[in-house]
Specification:
The chain is mostly helical. The protein has one domain. It contains 5 helices and no strands. α1 packs across α2, α1 packs across α5 and α3 packs across α4. It is globular and about 50 Å long. About 25% of the residues are buried.
Amino acid sequence: MVFICIFITGSLSGYLIELFYTRLISKKTWENVGFLKGPYLPQYGFGAVIMYLVCSLDIGFLGRFFMFYILLSCLEYITGFIFIKKLGYKYWDYSKRKYNIYGLVCPLFSFIWATIGSVFYYTIYPLFQSSLPEWFILFSLLILEIIIIDFLIILYKKLSKITRKSY
Protein backbone atom coordinates (compact mmCIF):
# COMPACT_ATOMS: atom_id res chain seq x y z
CA MET A 1 0.00 0.00 0.00
CA VAL A 2 2.92 2.32 0.68
CA PHE A 3 3.94 2.20 -2.99
CA ILE A 4 0.48 3.38 -4.09
CA CYS A 5 0.63 6.25 -1.58
CA ILE A 6 4.14 7.19 -2.75
CA PHE A 7 3.03 7.00 -6.39
CA ILE A 8 0.03 9.28 -5.77
CA THR A 9 2.07 11.74 -3.69
CA GLY A 10 4.67 11.91 -6.46
CA SER A 11 2.07 12.25 -9.22
CA LEU A 12 0.27 15.14 -7.51
CA SER A 13 3.48 16.87 -6.35
CA GLY A 14 5.02 16.50 -9.80
CA TYR A 15 2.01 18.17 -11.37
CA LEU A 16 2.40 21.16 -9.04
CA ILE A 17 6.15 21.35 -9.68
CA GLU A 18 5.64 21.33 -13.44
CA LEU A 19 2.70 23.71 -13.30
CA PHE A 20 4.71 26.35 -11.44
CA TYR A 21 7.87 25.69 -13.47
CA THR A 22 5.87 26.22 -16.68
CA ARG A 23 4.25 29.35 -15.28
CA LEU A 24 7.26 30.98 -13.67
CA ILE A 25 10.24 29.82 -15.73
CA SER A 26 9.68 28.16 -19.08
CA LYS A 27 6.53 29.35 -20.90
CA LYS A 28 5.18 32.00 -18.53
CA THR A 29 1.63 30.68 -18.94
CA TRP A 30 -0.78 28.53 -16.96
CA GLU A 31 -1.46 25.31 -18.84
CA ASN A 32 -2.15 21.64 -18.26
CA VAL A 33 1.35 20.20 -18.19
CA GLY A 34 0.50 16.54 -18.72
CA PHE A 35 -1.08 14.24 -21.26
CA LEU A 36 -3.87 13.27 -18.85
CA LYS A 37 -6.73 15.62 -18.02
CA GLY A 38 -6.39 15.64 -14.24
CA PRO A 39 -3.87 17.34 -11.95
CA TYR A 40 -1.34 14.51 -11.80
CA LEU A 41 1.73 13.34 -13.68
CA PRO A 42 2.26 9.57 -13.37
CA GLN A 43 5.90 9.81 -14.48
CA TYR A 44 6.58 11.71 -11.26
CA GLY A 45 4.72 9.00 -9.37
CA PHE A 46 7.04 6.38 -10.85
CA GLY A 47 9.97 8.64 -10.01
CA ALA A 48 8.79 8.85 -6.40
CA VAL A 49 8.58 5.05 -6.21
CA ILE A 50 12.12 4.80 -7.61
CA MET A 51 13.32 7.34 -5.03
CA TYR A 52 11.60 5.40 -2.26
CA LEU A 53 13.29 2.15 -3.36
CA VAL A 54 16.71 3.82 -3.59
CA CYS A 55 16.20 5.35 -0.13
CA SER A 56 15.61 1.89 1.30
CA LEU A 57 19.07 0.73 0.18
CA ASP A 58 21.84 0.73 2.77
CA ILE A 59 24.28 2.90 0.82
CA GLY A 60 26.01 6.19 1.55
CA PHE A 61 25.05 9.65 0.40
CA LEU A 62 27.18 9.63 -2.77
CA GLY A 63 26.00 6.16 -3.79
CA ARG A 64 22.39 7.19 -3.27
CA PHE A 65 22.93 10.46 -5.17
CA PHE A 66 24.50 8.53 -8.06
CA MET A 67 21.60 6.04 -8.09
CA PHE A 68 19.08 8.91 -8.17
CA TYR A 69 21.05 10.55 -11.01
CA ILE A 70 21.15 7.41 -13.16
CA LEU A 71 17.71 5.90 -12.44
CA LEU A 72 15.71 9.12 -12.62
CA SER A 73 17.52 10.08 -15.84
CA CYS A 74 16.63 6.68 -17.30
CA LEU A 75 13.00 7.20 -16.30
CA GLU A 76 13.00 10.66 -17.89
CA TYR A 77 14.54 9.30 -21.11
CA ILE A 78 12.14 6.35 -21.37
CA THR A 79 9.12 8.54 -20.58
CA GLY A 80 10.18 11.14 -23.14
CA PHE A 81 10.79 8.46 -25.76
CA ILE A 82 7.32 6.97 -25.20
CA PHE A 83 5.68 10.40 -25.39
CA ILE A 84 7.37 11.11 -28.71
CA LYS A 85 6.93 7.69 -30.34
CA LYS A 86 3.49 6.73 -29.03
CA LEU A 87 1.75 10.03 -28.31
CA GLY A 88 3.49 12.19 -30.90
CA TYR A 89 4.31 14.93 -28.43
CA LYS A 90 7.51 16.22 -26.88
CA TYR A 91 6.68 17.58 -23.41
CA TRP A 92 10.20 18.85 -22.71
CA ASP A 93 13.19 19.66 -24.84
CA TYR A 94 16.73 19.89 -23.54
CA SER A 95 18.25 20.07 -27.03
CA LYS A 96 19.71 23.53 -26.32
CA ARG A 97 21.46 22.30 -23.18
CA LYS A 98 24.99 20.93 -23.25
CA TYR A 99 25.56 17.20 -23.53
CA ASN A 100 21.88 16.35 -23.96
CA ILE A 101 20.76 13.02 -25.36
CA TYR A 102 18.13 13.59 -28.07
CA GLY A 103 16.83 16.54 -26.07
CA LEU A 104 15.30 14.12 -23.54
CA VAL A 105 17.93 14.17 -20.80
CA CYS A 106 20.84 16.42 -19.93
CA PRO A 107 23.37 16.55 -17.07
CA LEU A 108 21.87 19.70 -15.53
CA PHE A 109 18.40 18.22 -15.07
CA SER A 110 19.84 14.83 -14.07
CA PHE A 111 21.67 16.69 -11.31
CA ILE A 112 18.44 18.48 -10.34
CA TRP A 113 16.56 15.15 -10.15
CA ALA A 114 19.35 13.63 -8.03
CA THR A 115 19.20 16.65 -5.72
CA ILE A 116 15.41 16.29 -5.44
CA GLY A 117 15.97 12.61 -4.62
CA SER A 118 18.38 13.59 -1.85
CA VAL A 119 15.87 16.08 -0.43
CA PHE A 120 13.22 13.34 -0.66
CA TYR A 121 15.47 11.04 1.41
CA TYR A 122 15.71 13.52 4.28
CA THR A 123 12.16 14.90 4.21
CA ILE A 124 9.54 12.64 2.59
CA TYR A 125 11.03 9.17 3.01
CA PRO A 126 10.93 9.28 6.85
CA LEU A 127 7.21 10.14 6.75
CA PHE A 128 6.47 6.91 4.90
CA GLN A 129 8.41 4.78 7.39
CA SER A 130 5.65 4.94 9.97
CA SER A 131 2.12 3.65 9.51
CA LEU A 132 0.05 5.77 7.16
CA PRO A 133 -3.31 7.22 8.21
CA GLU A 134 -6.30 5.34 6.85
CA TRP A 135 -7.72 8.48 5.22
CA PHE A 136 -4.48 8.93 3.26
CA ILE A 137 -4.58 5.33 2.02
CA LEU A 138 -8.24 5.71 0.95
CA PHE A 139 -7.49 9.05 -0.72
CA SER A 140 -4.55 7.48 -2.60
CA LEU A 141 -6.69 4.58 -3.80
CA LEU A 142 -9.39 6.98 -5.00
CA ILE A 143 -6.89 9.11 -6.92
CA LEU A 144 -5.31 5.97 -8.40
CA GLU A 145 -8.72 4.90 -9.72
CA ILE A 146 -9.24 8.36 -11.24
CA ILE A 147 -5.80 8.23 -12.90
CA ILE A 148 -6.54 4.79 -14.36
CA ILE A 149 -9.93 5.93 -15.72
CA ASP A 150 -8.35 9.10 -17.14
CA PHE A 151 -5.61 7.01 -18.80
CA LEU A 152 -8.12 4.54 -20.27
CA ILE A 153 -10.20 7.38 -21.74
CA ILE A 154 -7.10 8.94 -23.35
CA LEU A 155 -5.99 5.52 -24.63
CA TYR A 156 -9.46 4.84 -26.08
CA LYS A 157 -9.49 8.20 -27.88
CA LYS A 158 -5.97 7.63 -29.22
CA LEU A 159 -6.83 4.11 -30.45
CA SER A 160 -10.09 5.35 -31.98
CA LYS A 161 -8.14 7.89 -34.06
CA ILE A 162 -5.71 5.18 -35.21
CA THR A 163 -8.58 2.83 -36.12
CA ARG A 164 -10.39 5.55 -38.08
CA LYS A 165 -7.24 6.42 -40.02
CA SER A 166 -6.65 2.81 -41.07
CA TYR A 167 -9.99 2.56 -42.93
